[in-house]
Write a structure and sequence with these properties.
- The chain is α/β, with parallel strands linked by helices.
- The protein has a single domain, classed as Luciferase-like domain (TIM Barrel, Alpha-Beta Barrel), CATH 3.20.20.30.
- About 40% of the residues lie in helices and about 15% in strands.
- It contains 11 helices and 9 strands.
- The protein has an 8-stranded parallel barrel, surrounded by 7 helices.
- Helix 10 packs across helix 11.
- Keywords: Flavoprotein, FMN, Monooxygenase, Oxidoreductase.
Length: about 300
């Protein structure tokens, strides 16, 4: 099993120096991927602009966009942007597509919330694959480019937390990008089994199985307080009393040894990659997580 690291893009008060430092540190190893996701009505960096930056800042590490919502974009322009990122990173890009969980993001860009379905997502994924294959979608002189670095374009995963979503993506996705709130490896394995069965029944190669969770490393009560602060900032669309109710059991907090033990539970169920999500932009959290990830490299 490999250990990826998510950039602290959902933390407040970021600057270019902090993000560059995290990116180059992740690139130095031992992490298996550098990850980030999309959100619109929030103070995080725009995900496609950020793709260009991390492609330039790094040389080794695979780049994983853990959620992009195609319904928030024109699919041809999204395909062009992702092909550009794939070219700039020399084929290091993987993209997880999802429908998103917030109507406010749809409204912010004038997208129709009624398109927040897996059918609409699949249609846009097909358009993107046509662009990456060099097919002309209009009577243009040339097809939409640039050609992606990898034939067929970036690998596509489905961002999911449920079996119905997994089954609906078998025709276009190469794997799943999940998230676990309570770190229950047995429940995660049930979802993995759905994917394994669906891909096998469709005659497709075994899917890439990834999951993620929030983390905070430290001693005493401080790490759990850090996770709670992060959840209140990130889950700003949920009433604070609900966040308080889930905060004690959402994500992970503890020491390096305890994190290693949790990760081994996910390795035991056949997880291909766990993508850790920081709850602070403190570089010490990154350094301490790197010490743990080195044991899995």
């Amino acid at each position: 099993m490999r250990i990826g690291m998510t950039m602290p893009v959902m933390e407040p008060d970021l600057d270019a120096e902090t993000l560059h430092s995290w990116a180059t540190t992740i690139d130095d190893g031992p992490f298996s991927s550098l990850c980030w996701g999309e959100r619109i009505a929030f103070d995080n960096p725009e995900c496609l602009t950020f793709l260009g930056a991390v492609a330039a800042w790094t040389r080794r590490v695979p780049l994983v966009m853990t959620v992009v919502v195609p319904q928030l974009h024109d699919p041809v322009m999204l395909a062009k942007a992702l092909a550009t990122g794939d070219m700039l990173s020399e084929g290091r890009l993987t993209v997880a597509l999802g429908v998103g969980g917030r109507h406010e993001d749809y409204r912010a860009v004038g997208a129709d919330p009624s398109t927040q379905t897996m059918r609409q997502l699949a249609d846009r994924a097909e358009t993107m694959k046509q662009v990456w294959a060099g097919e002309k979608l209009t009577e243009s002189v040339l097809p939409v480019g640039p050609p992606p670095y990898r034939k067929g374009g970036p690998s596509l995963h489905v961002g999911t937390t449920g079996p119905k979503t997994i089954r609906s993506a078998v025709d276009w996705a190469d794997g799943i990008a999940g998230v676990t709130l309570d770190l229950d490896a047995s429940k995660q394995n049930e979802l993995f089994d759905v994917a394994r069965s669906a891909w096998a029944e469709a005659g497709r190669p075994a899917p890439h199985l990834a999951t993620s969770f929030w983390f905070a490393i430290g001693e005493g009560e401080a790490p759990r307080a850090q996770v709670t602060r992060h959840l209140h900032h990130y889950m700003n669309w949920i009433p604070s009393e609900f966040v308080d109710a889930i905060a004690p059991t959402t994500g992970w907090s503890g020491t390096e040894a305890e994190l290693t033990e949790v990760l081994r539970r996910f390795a035991d169920i056949g997880t291909d990659e766990v993508q850790l999500i920081p709850t602070s932009s403190d570089p010490d959290q990154l350094r301490r997580a790197a010490d743990v990830a080195a044991a899995f490299a």
